[in-house]
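Module 6 notes. Inverse folding takes a fixed backbone as the condition and produces residue identities as the prediction. Think of it as a translation problem where the source language is geometry and the target language is the twenty amino acids. Below is one complete input and output pair. Work through it position by position during the lab.
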């Protein structure tokens, strides 16, 4: 529907009329209409001739905001929103920064997890860091992406307690990315800041005003990038909510938005406190929970809109995990019977695949579908799909090291020795691909004659396919104008003789499902390499949207989403807060979970759990569970017997 300014509250109108010679900060509670407010502000800026752009933290938020713009007929008027990372990349490209390997090739999450991180952990172990696991490499990468700075002023673990590991990692990382030629999303913000400071002296920004959504999720490097733009005259409106800052794992912190007025001087402050998402009962519990945070800034309280349905909140204890699952299925079934279009979600602190194993059987007996969008990861790991993706990249860049690296597994039968030798024997100015080809010509002498011969034969299969790959792809595009690239990928992955010669099994059903899911989402006019880079993020976003039945996901994945009925499972000691986690962030995580619900919110716990969920949090199957300490003393969140509640409200 067309945008109607009468939909705005007085507080929202005040923000829409913001003086753009000043910076601004909007603290917006859940469901208080920040997206509508941002759209109103963008529209006003457009009318005034102010060049403005909206930045979001996640791709899902970008897609949602773009959809809202289209809904109000402003998608052709206002600049398309983008993520902070993609805008940083735009600056890097415009400034022709030499800090990134060329051509820019951003690793997808499968490549990061299965190639980059695994290999870096292997190399660090060889340097003497015995027992080092992939998780620690991921932590190091996050610290580096925040430029080793914790917004809260607390010491970053490895940089402080193991400086030798940090130094080894940095030296290794720089050489690793040189040999493989990749760029990580995590580095874009700090690289862009460096480029602006070093190369951007005479370059004028393409905007006058930036609206940055979910500002509380930015880490120090992200904020430094925004500050570098501010130093070039760009005014910034930060929209966020310190109570929903839950990305401490990447060194974001509520301090980022709390201290905004200190870093961006000349700041006008605004608040949005009337929620139109849920009623007074859920507001009361969520507000009492977050209000107990010792480090929280004093702010006007969240309040339900006049006339809002009060809603239901209950904190329920069950004797066993199975009884808990049965109750969740019973309540969800009742809700969907009365309102088939209702959106229902089960939110967990961690390990959704493990929880799915417990819940799915019970749900099936109730005639319910449990949708776990983690299947997208499984789809992306299909060997045939990985090979088709690699072929698409290599057709346009035969030196794409990540693509060749992904092919080494199918070529060698997951023999890591070939990739390790090719990496280790790179010359001073040589990359992975040049080393791999040189060793191929020499028969891979360091891996044994049989392995070397077999690898050479299979590499020849790939190279024969590559000889005509680009011309075949371009001929396909001419013959299929306006057809999604998904069709080409499916065709290549299912009928490609070269994949049969490599001895690969069929394309997995999950991979086919993923390709069909993004069929109409990614524009067919984009280049194939662009399509391939969008396959994972668009697939994950669409999987969240299209999931039928009851959705199962982590609390962090639910951020930004809304459901009619929400079950927050495992709200018990050592799961919430999680063992050794930051208690203040765990409180905010639970707050985010509770505020996803429109009308019904159930927090549940089980006194006794059996495998596999028994080992989540506590780590053993004999230990009895106790209530969540975060809800102690929270008005409206008293713990009830779950089975008695079920009989009282839903019958025997």
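Target side of the pair, the amino acids:
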């Amino acid at each position: 529907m067309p945008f109607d300014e009468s939909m705005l509250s007085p507080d929202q109108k005040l923000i829409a009329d913001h003086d753009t010679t000043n910076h601004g900060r909007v603290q917006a509670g859940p469901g208080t209409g920040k997206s509508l407010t941002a759209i109103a502000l963008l529209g006003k800026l457009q009318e005034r001739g102010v060049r403005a752009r909206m930045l979001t933290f996640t791709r899902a938020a970008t897609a949602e905001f773009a959809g809202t713009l289209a809904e109000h007929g402003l998608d052709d008027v206002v600049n398309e929103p983008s993520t902070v990372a993609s805008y940083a990349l735009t600056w890097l490209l415009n400034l022709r920064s030499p800090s990134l390997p060329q051509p820019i090739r951003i690793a997808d999450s499968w490549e990061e997890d299965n190639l980059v991180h695994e290999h870096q952990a292997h190399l660090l172990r060889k340097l003497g860091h015995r027992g080092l696991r992939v998780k620690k490499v991921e932590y190091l990468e996050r610290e580096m992406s925040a430029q080793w700075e914790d917004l809260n002023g607390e010491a970053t673990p490895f940089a402080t307690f193991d400086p030798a590991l940090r130094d080894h990692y940095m030296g290794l990382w720089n050489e690793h990315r040189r040999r493989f030629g990749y760029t990580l999303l995590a580095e874009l913000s700090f690289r862009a800041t460096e480029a602006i400071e070093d190369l951007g002296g005479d370059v004028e920004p393409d905007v006058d005003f930036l609206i940055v959504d979910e500002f509380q999720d930015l880490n120090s490097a992200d904020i430094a990038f925004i500050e570098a733009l501010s130093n070039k005259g760009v005014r910034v409106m930060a929209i966020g909510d310190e109570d929903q800052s839950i990305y401490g794992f990447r060194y974001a912190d509520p301090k980022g938005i709390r201290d905004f007025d200190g870093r961006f001087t000349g700041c006008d402050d605004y608040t949005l406190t009337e929620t139109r998402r849920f009623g007074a009962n859920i507001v009361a519990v969520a507000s009492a929970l977050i209000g107990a945070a010792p480090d929280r800034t004093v702010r006007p309280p969240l309040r339900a809109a006049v006339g809002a349905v009060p809603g239901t909140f209950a904190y329920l204890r069950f004797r066993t995990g199975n009884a808990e699952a049965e109750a969740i299925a019973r309540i969800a079934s009742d809700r969907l019977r009365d309102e088939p279009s209702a959106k229902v979600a089960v939110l967990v602190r961690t390990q959704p695949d493990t929880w799915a194993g417990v819940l799915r059987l019970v749900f099936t007996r109730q005639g319910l579908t449990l949708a776990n969008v983690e299947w997208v990861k499984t789809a992306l790991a299909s060997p045939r799909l990985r090979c088709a993706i690699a072929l698409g990249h290599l057709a346009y860049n035969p030196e794409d090291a990540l693509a060749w690296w992904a092919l080494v597994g199918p070529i060698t039968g997951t023999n890591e020795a070939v990739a390790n030798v090719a990496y280790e024997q790179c010359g001073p100015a040589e990359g992975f691909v040049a080393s791999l080809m040189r060793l191929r010509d020499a028969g891979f002498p360091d891996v044994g004659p049989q392995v070397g011969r077999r690898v050479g034969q299979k590499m020849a299969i790939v190279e024969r396919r590559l000889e005509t790959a680009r011309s075949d792809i371009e001929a396909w595009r001419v013959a299929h104008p306006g057809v999604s690239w998904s069709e080409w990928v499916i065709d290549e992955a299912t009928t490609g003789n070269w994949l049969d010669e490599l001895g690969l099994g069929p394309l997995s059903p999950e991979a086919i499902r993923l390709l069909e899911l993004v069929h109409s989402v990614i524009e067919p006019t984009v280049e194939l390499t662009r399509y391939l880079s969008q396959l994972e993020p668009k697939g994950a976003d669409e999987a969240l949207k299209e999931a039928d039945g009851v959705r199962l996901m982590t609390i962090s994945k639910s951020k930004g989403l809304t459901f009619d009925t929400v079950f927050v499972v495992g709200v018990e000691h050592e799961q919430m807060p999680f063992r050794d986690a930051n208690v203040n962030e765990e409180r905010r995580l639970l707050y985010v979970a509770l505020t996803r619900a429109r009308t019904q919110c159930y927090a549940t716990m089980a006194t006794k759990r059996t495998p596999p969920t028994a080992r989540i949090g506590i780590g053993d199957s004999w230990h009895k569970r106790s209530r969540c300490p975060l809800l102690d003393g929270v008005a409206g969140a008293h713990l009830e017997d779950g089975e008695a509640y079920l009989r009282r409200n839903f019958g025997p």
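Reference fact for the lab report: The chain has a mean pLDDT of 89.
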